[in-house]
Design a protein that fits this description.
single chain, five-stranded antiparallel β-sheet, 2 helices, four-stranded antiparallel β-sheet, 338 residues, 30 strands, mainly beta, 49% strand
Length: 338
Amino acid sequence: MVYNGQTPPEPRVFDTSTGSFKTASLPAVPAGEELQTSQCVVTRDGGDLRVAYVVATQTPASGLAPLKNHKRAHLLTLDGAAPVASVDLPLSAEIRGSSSFGVPLLVREDAEGVRTEVLRPSDLTSSWARPGEPAWVSTPTALAIYQTENPAMVDIVDARSGKTIASAPIVEQLDSRKLLAFTDGFRVGNRIIRTSDGKTLPAVADTDFTGTEYELSQDFFLMEGSDLLQVYDINTGKPVLDRRGEDVGSLDLRGVKLFGDRLFLHSTSSAGVDTRTIIGLPSQAELATTWSAIPYADLEGWTLTSSNCLSAELVIEHCDDMKLVKDVDGRYPPFAEQ
């Protein structure tokens, strides 16, 4: 987030170890300087959460002394008011995205275009730099995708080290960046889909590039479209649920959500009757015929849920009333009761 010429609101960071929100305030602007813009991002140094600020200030002209611009990065813990590290930056440096492995910056260079630079979350020293801007960075998997001179290929970079680990056909990101789909960008046919640990997931011979949604949990992989509803056990590679064509159409599905070993189905009949069902996997047993909240993501002993996001597609961006629920015995509490 960029704030222009004002002190930004303090970022609230959820500490999973204590179950409470903590803050880290913007460091004081040096005497004689004026705040221009500020950015902040949350990162992690080992098991400790940190907040990094990139702050632009300006020393006004005075007499024969010209105006002077400054750009600095500051690193703060959630327990102390003073920065644990501060460094000067090029004036063009900007935070680009958030990560658990450092502070990613984009630095514009007049003669050489742009470069990516990642600062260490311990002391803001440079971890690695690379020419160009990533097409996207996947935080959970710590992968960065860079375009190459060949428009049909990309470099897949380990964003923790900056090392290129593979070159591959064009990549799509699926399911909140947990899945990567390797395609040639032109051919109509199968995607080759892999998880962050490199495991290849099943594909359907007649599945093309459009109209299919993908979701991944620890043990299961969902492919869902207007005439396709499949769930695979990613450990065995075998389907535990396989519905196609009219078998899917007759379900009148408005939304499907995979979380853990549960499948949430939201159906609406032609008469307007809503049905909400929770199916257990791999058994396909009906575990419940309603729900008070849908789990969306797990976060180190907590589960992010929404109680009112029951509309078509069940997309998190359409939801408000998001809550974090403490897990019980390592599981979302309602699952332990079913």
